[in-house]
Every structure is written in structure tokens, then in C-alpha cells.
């Protein structure tokens, strides 16, 4: 008799457990979907407030009848689907310059004119996870070991260098300065870029597209991302990669930012012509092959005799 009661109780518990899990699942699913829908509802409300029905009733009614839908841009060229605009609804809309994020107009409308959203999406410049429709999923903040972090503000120019090789033409000052530092500090003694330089360290020609899983984060505290690795490695190569022959250079944070932007821009993508910026007829990419004899690269600068 007691056994039967126990069995019934167990069964009840199991049923309750399942019900709870199901309920939780539904809530999570709902909330995941809610996020972008709420922003779209807010966008619609704000837009209707800014519009005048008398002036253009058919347009007004169309907006008023707008149903929430996932907005996306598919770009075959670099195999991306970007849904960022599902929340960033006002990104191209000049009426939203004073709205709060994510509805606010892009801070550089000119930039979006040169790189139209429907042709470029967002992640080619910003990184992040294009397919996601949640704030966390899109990777606004660095998630441990996540391969697609959003590019921090300070390193945005690295993305311009994906396509633009004439840094002067677009005023990419960080890339210009990073390239100069690379030359001044004789990095080419150990590293190759496009076939120029030494072979003691890894070839950096395609560093931008090197998979983050190839980096060891064993000796790094805090958040893990490739960008953080690069910055910390420049601050102290031996700490991040014990036994590395690369020494710690005397660089301030700004210089580290320049150099990091530069190395993170290096890639060998062959984009179609429509995505390749035109360059002036006389443009020649500056050389970075100021090579020092190997022996001098290893000696520290203090005990080194002037070679002039
Ligand atoms: C679920 C809605 C949502 C999606 C999807 C989304 N965002 Fe955002 N985004 C936000 C919100 C909300 C903020 C403002 C958060 C804040 O104030 O910190 C924001 C802020 C930003 C900022 C400003 C910097 C910052 O972190 O504060 C950038 C840049 C950005 N988003 C880019 C993107 C890109 C690129 C994508 C696509 C990969 C994307 N967002 C997808 C909601 C979204
Ligand atoms: C051609 C490159 C490029 C593209 C494409 C691009 N952005 Fe940006 N975006 C930038 C740059 C550069 C900044 C400025 C970063 C800074 O603050 O220094 C920026 C800034 C932002 C900000 C910060 C606004 C603020 O007020 O802090 C948001 C949000 C944003 N972009 C969203 C987007 C979204 C969403 C898309 C796609 C619809 C997109 N961007 C497409 C280059 C781009
Ligand atoms: C996916 C490749 C790509 C990326 C990434 C990219 N651009 Fe461009 N950009 C282009 C192409 C293609 C053009 C078209 C104009 C041309 O043919 O020169 C262009 C045009 C421009 C122009 C207008 C130049 C002119 O001569 O009319 C500026 C300025 C510019 N980009 C700046 C930037 C900046 C700043 C960034 C980074 C925030 C950036 N671009 C990122 C491909 C790119
Ligand atoms: C004495 C040789 C030497 C010099 C000089 C040198 N490096 Fe390195 N570098 C290495 C070696 C070896 C590694 C691989 C071990 C490690 O992670 O430190 C490396 C790693 C790197 C990495 C990570 C590459 C990857 O694919 O993991 C970058 C980026 C880098 N170096 C950039 C630079 C820059 C920029 C300079 C100039 C400021 C420089 N290096 C100077 C030898 C050198």
C-alpha cells in the first residue's frame, strides 16, 4: 500500500518537474523573442509621433499597420547574415539622431552612404554575431572564448583595413601610425607580411582572419578574445607566450592600440570588385621590410652598441 502511494508521489513529482521545465523554456523562448519586438514597437511608436497623418495618410497608415519582423541582410561575398537592424531600426533614419540606442541614427551617416547597409551589413565593420536577435547573442560584450566579439571602439579602424589598403585616402590615422611603428621597431626581422620579412615568428599576412581558437589564453586573466590577446601580448609577450623570443617594447597604450589595429587589419581576402575600393593609379602599398640582422633582434636595446 505504502509503495503505491510512494509511486504516485514520485510520478507527481516527475510531472511537476517536467511542467516547470516546459514553463521555463517557454518563458525563455518568449523573452528571447520579445527583445527585438519591443524595440520595433518602440520604433513604430516614435516614428508615428514624428509623422503627420494629414500630410501623407497612406504612408502613415502603412507604418501604423507595420507588424514586427526580423530584418536581415544576407551577404554571399563573406557568407554573413546580419540581423542587427532588427533592433537598430533607426540606423539609417535621420529622424532618430536624438533617440536612445538601439534606435539611434548611425553616428556616421556618410560612412553608411559609402557602405550601404543592404550591401555591407554591419558585422564587416563591427564584428559580433550577425545571426543573433538578442543583445547578448549579438555579442555586444566580450563573452569568454567567443569567436565573434564585437570590435571595441578603439580598434574599429582595423576593419577599414580589411578592404582599404590606401590608409591615407580614408584618413585611417591609427593604421598609418601602426604601419610606421611596425617598420620602426623592425618587426619584419622576424615576421613576414606578403612575403616580406623574416621567418622566426608567424607570418602575419592573414592575421585578421586567424581563428581565435589558435591562441592560448592560459596566461591571461579576465575576458578572452583575440583582440584582448593581441593587446596583452604586445604589453608583455613573454607573459602571454612564455619562451617567446619577442621582447617587450617600450610602447604606451595608444601606440599599442595603433599597432594592434594594424596587425588586426592584415588579411588576404580576395573580395569581388564591388567590395574593393578603387585606388589612385600611382598608389603603391608602402613596404614594411626594414630588416635587421637576426642577431640584433635578440639583443636587448640597452646593451647593444650603436650599429651606425
Ligand atoms: C536585441 C536587440 C539588438 C540586436 C539584435 C543588436 N543590438 Fe546593438 N545594441 C542594442 C542595445 C539595446 C544597445 C544599447 C546598449 C547600451 O546602452 O549599452 C546596443 C548598442 C550597440 C552599439 C553601441 C556600443 C555599445 O555596445 O554600447 C553598437 C556598436 C551595436 N549595438 C552594434 C550592433 C551590431 C553590429 C549588431 C549585430 C551583430 C547589433 N548591435 C545587434 C540592441 C541590439
Ligand atoms: C563601414 C563600416 C561600418 C558599417 C558598415 C557600420 N558601422 Fe556602425 N560604426 C562604424 C564606426 C567607425 C563607428 C564609430 C565608432 C566610434 O565610436 O569610434 C560606428 C559606430 C556605431 C554605433 C555607436 C553609436 C553610438 O552612439 O555610440 C552603433 C550603434 C553602430 N555603429 C551600429 C551599426 C549598425 C547597427 C550597423 C549596420 C546596420 C553599422 N553600425 C554599420 C562603422 C560602421
Ligand atoms: C568590405 C570592404 C570595406 C570595408 C570593411 C570598409 N570599406 Fe570603405 N569603401 C569600400 C568600397 C568598395 C568603397 C567604394 C568607393 C570606392 O570605390 O573607392 C568604399 C568607400 C569609402 C569611402 C569613400 C571614399 C571615396 O573615395 O569615395 C570612405 C571615406 C571609406 N570607404 C571609409 C571607410 C572606413 C573609415 C571604414 C572603416 C570604418 C571602411 N571604409 C570600411 C569598401 C570597404
Ligand atoms: C625576435 C623575433 C621577433 C620580433 C622582433 C617580433 N616578433 Fe612577434 N612573434 C615572434 C614569435 C616567435 C612569435 C610567436 C610566439 C608568441 O606568441 O610570442 C610572435 C608572435 C607575434 C604575434 C602573434 C602571431 C600569431 O599568429 O600568433 C604578433 C601579432 C606579433 N608577433 C607581432 C609583432 C610585432 C608587431 C612586432 C614588432 C613590434 C614583433 N612581433 C616583433 C617573434 C618576434
Automatic annotation (TrEMBL):
The UniProt record lists the keyword Plastid: no
Residue ranges occupied by any Cytochrome c domain in the UniProt entry: 173-267
Keyword Membrane: no
Molecular function terms from GO: electron transfer activity; heme binding; metal ion binding
PROSITE patterns noted in UniProt: CYTC (PS51007)
Keywords: Heme, Iron, Metal-binding
InterPro entries in the record: Cyt_c-like_dom, Cyt_c-like_dom_sf, Multihaem_cyt_sf
UniProt name for this protein: Menaquinol oxidoreductase complex, cytochrome c subunit, 4 heme-binding sites
UniProt source species: Geotalea daltonii (strain DSM 22248 / JCM 15807 / FRC-32) (Geobacter daltonii)
Amino acid at each position: 500500500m505504502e509503495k503505491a502511494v510512494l509511486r504516485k508521489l514520485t510520478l507527481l513529482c516527475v510531472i511537476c518537474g517536467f511542467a516547470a521545465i516546459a514553463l521555463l523554456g517557454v518563458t525563455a523562448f518568449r523573452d528571447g523573442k520579445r527583445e527585438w519586438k519591443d524595440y520595433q514597437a518602440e520604433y513604430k511608436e516614435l516614428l508615428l509621433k514624428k509623422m503627420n497623418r494629414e500630410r501623407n495618410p497612406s504612408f502613415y497608415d502603412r507604418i501604423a499597420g507595420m507588424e514586427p519582423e526580423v530584418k536581415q541582410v544576407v551577404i554571399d561575398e563573406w557568407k554573413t547574415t546580419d540581423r542587427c537592424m532588427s533592433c537598430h531600426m533607426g540606423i539609417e533614419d535621420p529622424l532618430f539622431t536624438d533617440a536612445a540606442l538601439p534606435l539611434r541614427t548611425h553616428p556616421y551617416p556618410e560612412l553608411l552612404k559609402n557602405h550601404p547597409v543592404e550591401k555591407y551589413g554591419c558585422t564587416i565593420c563591427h564584428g559580433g554575431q550577425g545571426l543573433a536577435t538578442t543583445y547578448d547573442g549579438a555579442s555586444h560584450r566580450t563573452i569568454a572564448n567567443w569567436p565573434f566579439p564585437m570590435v571595441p571602439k578603439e580598434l574599429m579602424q582595423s576593419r577599414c583595413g580589411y578592404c582599404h589598403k590606401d590608409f591615407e585616402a580614408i584618413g585611417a590615422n591609427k593604421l598609418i601610425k601602426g604601419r610606421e611603428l611596425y617598420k620602426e621597431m623592425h618587426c619584419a626581422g622576424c615576421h613576414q607580411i606578403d612575403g616580406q620579412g623574416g621567418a622566426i615568428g608567424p607570418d602575419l599576412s592573414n592575421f585578421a582572419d586567424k581563428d581565435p581558437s589558435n591562441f592560448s589564453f592560459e596566461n591571461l586573466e579576465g575576458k578572452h578574445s583575440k583582440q584582448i590577446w593581441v593587446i596583452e601580448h604586445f604589453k608583455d609577450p613573454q607573459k602571454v607566450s612564455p619562451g617567446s623570443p619577442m621582447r617587450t617594447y617600450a610602447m604606451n597604450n595608444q601606440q599599442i592600440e595603433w599597432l594592434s589595429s594594424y596587425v588586426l587589419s592584415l588579411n588576404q581576402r580576395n573580395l569581388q570588385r564591388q567590395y574593393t575600393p578603387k585606388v589612385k593609379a600611382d598608389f603603391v602599398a608602402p613596404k614594411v621590410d626594414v630588416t635587421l640582422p637576426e642577431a640584433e633582434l635578440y639583443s636587448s636595446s640597452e646593451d647593444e652598441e650603436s650599429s651606425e
